Amino acid sequence: METDFLKKLFSIAIPVAIQGLFYALLNILDQIMVAQKGEAAVVAVSLASKNFSILNFTLMGLTGGLAIISAQLIGKGNEKNIAKIQGLTLFSGGILVLLFMMLSLFFPTACMSLFTADPAVIALGATYHRAIALGYLPVLFTMVYSTILRNAKIVQLPMYIGMGTVGLNAFLNYLLIFGNFGAPALGVFGSGLATTLAQYIECLVLLSVVFGKKLIGSYSLKQLLTFFKTDKEILLFWKLTLPLLIEEMSFILADTVDNSIYGFMGTKQTIAVTIMNPVQGLIIGFFGGFATAASVMIGHLLGKNEKQHAYQTAQHILRLGAILSLIVGVVYLFFNSFYLKLYSLDAFSYRLTTTLMLMMVIFIPIKITNMIITTGVLSAGGETKFVLYQSIFGAWGFAIPLGLLSAFVFHLPIYWVFVAISFEEIIRVALCLWKMKKRTWLNTLVE
User: Fold this and answer.
1) Membrane-spanning residues where (predicted)?
2) Using the 8-state DSSP alphabet, how is residue 406 labeled?
3) What is the value of pTM for the model shown?
4) Distance CA 366, CA 343 (A)
5) What are the Cα distances from residue 47, in Å, to 41, 105, 361?
6) What pLDDT, on the 0 to 100 scale, is given for residue 369?
7) Which residues make Cβ contacts (< 8 Å) with residue 287, sequence separation at least 6?
């Protein structure tokens, strides 16, 4: 591979990957701290976080449209038109944030009941819901402004602020979960409160730097509100974003069903999945940098109408991502026993989780390839409808039916249920590679 290509790739991928790595490490550290309060507390925090995950994925759908258009506008040299798309994203995201905030504040018990029937877990999870609810708003602003900065290849600023936020969040967890240094010992509620405080500080610091240095995205309110005047780019935004929103909602519903399957298999099984998820998130979060780099690099090239170069770039990033993710997964297996010892697991839970981790590592390269090709390659060329169709087909045609059958008809162990649910990744990667080779996704979308 060319040195120039690798330099461009890693200049974007590594900062984003490091930031994703730190967030995933925070989730692991958070779980380890909460685990000191008992197994029910671990499960409660994990399941209560699903509401935020649903919001997060929905906002990702919105910012996905922003990312596609802004990358091509920057490649075209037409940055001024980003303002109205950014304003529309903030306005639409604000409506979603308000809805989810009300759910967490006023209906936390109902939200928890979707995932578990354990009354102790429901009660603890409800307190966590209320603690994190007010933190949804700063997440929207951080996500939108970070998206714009990354598309302009200003990737180190969000990384440094994100790393600082992770350190602050970990320290606040230490204070508020256990009551250290004279702080109140709030347990599960303290964990949620620490997250909310850290999110506000992250948002305020990021916005202060963006507007203080007048970086891209520091548009006035008047500029942001120009989205009320409908034009080609506003229509393009919804054309690209609506399939992404539906795809994210479909994914969320499917993930909710998946977690319900795991949850109703029993607390031991749920603990195994709960312990696996941060590690899987750690690896996927790291390689999310490759997907972001693919989206930015390919978007810029398509904005310049350099289609052959864009196709070659996609091929190189996909190969590199698959190979490196396989290596990372295998290396992790050597450290698995050390990770599991951080939890107070009995012998049965330890064996269950160990086998589940092995299955997770087997599927990691396929999951990474799917992530890069859908969010980084096909979406960059505007093929968001195809991304929607293959996602729905995989989740509802394979993952959920196979998950239900394996868990409640054949009564298979949790690790085989995970394999059954993950089988859809193989179907999807085959469809996506076929689509990529057709080259119909190589589209210049902006003028």
Assistant:
1) 12-34, 54-75, 87-107, 127-145, 157-177, 197-216, 274-296, 317-335, 386-408, 414-434
2) I
3) 0.84
4) 28
5) 10, 16, 23
6) 95
7) 17, 321, 324, 325, 368, 371, 372
